[in-house]
Amino acid sequence: MRVLGVNAVFHDPAAALVVDGRVVAAAEEERFTRRKHGKEPVPFSAWEQPAAAAAWCLEQAGLTPADLDAVGWSYDPDLVEHGLPGTDPGWEQLRTDFARRAPFFLRTALPGLDPGIVRFVQHHLAHAASAAAAARWRSGTGGDSCAVLVADGRGEATSYLAGRYRDGTVQRMGTQRLPDSLGLRYEDLTAHLGFRRSSDEYKVMALASYGTPRFAEELAADLHATGDGGVRAAPLDLSRFAEQRGPADPMEPEHADLAASVQLRLEETLLDLARWLHRRTGENRLALAGGIALNCVANTRIADEGPFDEVWVQPAAGDAGTALGAALHLSAQAGDPVVPMPGADLGRGWSDDELEQVLRDARVRYERPDDLAATVADTIAGDGVVAWFQGRSEFGPRALGHRSLLAHPGKQENVDRLNAVKGRESFRPVAPMVRAERAAELFSRGPAASPYMLFVHDVAPEWQQRIPAVTHVDGTARIQTVEPDGNPLLAELLAAVEDRTGLPCVINTSLNTAGRPMVDTPVHALETFGSAPVDLLALGPFVVRR
């Protein structure tokens, strides 16, 4: 089966291609259009077709739209319940009408596509399949059975799904109808604090570390698990805790306290849901997806304090990942032997010859060092900032060593320096990339393997002074572990940095500037290098110096 998955309903339009049960390609439309989250600057582009992403996925496999056997659209208009409290009837009708016409919109975006092969896949089912069907443990022993938990803002009429995944099918055990929604309440908080809804929730998670959860007990009455697989999370009057903040207003202590309080209630509620699900399923493994699964602090509490032996989080846990999940679900339903996703590097890549031609066309001076890792390590050890562009781009919001900015972790001032490069708020942390075999020496708590930067770890006291730039205010770090087998060049770079600095890690943050999607092409990389105070660009095997 050749199955294209599509997300184009709420935000993060994306496409993914699965051929005979194997993930071939996946990409978000923002990497092509340069509109972050598929929202800006056009208000209605959240519903845009991922035309460029889908066309590229097909090109990657040498297919045409006519070659497809099925298209999975990660939203089912037949499941929408009009008139639910807290929803706008006009928007709901418009969204439903848009989804029903999706096959014909896709035919326009992909000439030659047969609209009759489009299949609607429930939004949360697509999320669940994106995690459970792609989980890394499916390549090992014990079959593919696991518990699965999805939580986000909303799907067609619900905000959450819990169940068991087995033999390509999700058995639903828990759900929650709107308007109760953990994701929507976190979005409300994001907007109340002066950030962008459905976009800046990760900023709230970072801000929470600066506050005290003094409102958590009062919030518990309105934010909690109900004990039967559901949640209580109706709209809240947040102004009783802290005044609405405008984007340019100062951040007051009560804003950080409110963020800390809602964050704590989210963690406690998810823990209760995980415990309930474990009792219902008896499974020892849990797969997480949905926008809330990008909350790495909550993920860590589930992994550390929850009842499951292993927790795996889909690296593209947000709505972009539903494109992959819709394709995996239809593949499994057709009987294809679905295999785990090979990694998050599922996007575009360029050959060395193609990269060199871009450099020649740009008429910039470049070199091809005999030892790229050593050259880059010299720059980092000398406290230079490196733009690192290697291999295929990442699917999902995290830079994982393919489109990254790298710097020295032992220099506290590099936090402000990188936030200035990227135009970010000063309270935002930067994260460490660390050799997997050294991680346990530096970090505790959280899963030992963390290749997708979706958990937080405590920084060992003796290391906090040695790597202050990647130690958050609460003594934690959101680490990425690097295995030599998975990314030998990156592992070689980390070893070279340690030889020069004595530190087995580097700062890793996404290669982009404020309000822009992550760099995707070599031209994007050159543009960012030319406009930002970056010392060295490592573009494949080539380097460009400032």
Q: Report the portion of residues in β strands.
A: 15-25%
Name the poorly predicted regions.
Answer: 41-45
Kindly name the structural category.
alpha/beta
Helix content: 25-40%
Number of strands: 22
Fill in the CATH topology of the largest domain.
DHBP synthase
Biggest sheet strand line-up: 19-15-20-14-13-21-22
Number of structurally distinct domains: 3
> Separation of termini?
48 Å
Q: Label the overall shape.
A: globular
Sheet with the most strands?
Answer: 7 strands, mixed
Task: Please characterize this protein's 3D structure.
It is a single chain. The chain has 546 residues and is of the alpha/beta class. It folds into 3 domains: 2-74 and 77-120 and 319-333, Nucleotidyltransferase, domain 5 (2-Layer Sandwich), CATH 3.30.420.40; 175-313, ATPase, nucleotide binding domain (Nucleotidyltransferase, domain 5, 2-Layer Sandwich), CATH 3.30.420.40; 352-545, Carbamoyltransferase, C-terminal domain (DHBP synthase). It is built from 18 helices and 22 strands. It has helices at residues 30-33, 51-61, 89-100, 102-109, 123-132, 182-192, 201-208, 216-219, 253-281, 296-305, 321-333, 352-362, 372-381, 413-422, 439-442, 461-464, 488-501, 522-531; strands spanning 2-7, 14-19, 22-28, 70-73, 118-120, 146-151, 158-166, 169-177, 224-225, 231-232, 285-289, 310-313, 386-389, 403-407, 431-435, 443-444, 457-459, 476-477, 480-482, 505-510, 536-539, 542-545. Strands 19-15-20-14-13-21-22 form a 7-stranded mixed β-sheet, with helices on both faces. Strands 3-2-1-4-5 form a 5-stranded mixed β-sheet. Strand 9 and strand 10 (231-232) form a beta hairpin. The longest helix has 29 residues, at 253-281. Residues 2-71, 118-328 form the Carbamoyltransferase domain. Belongs to the NodU/CmcH family.
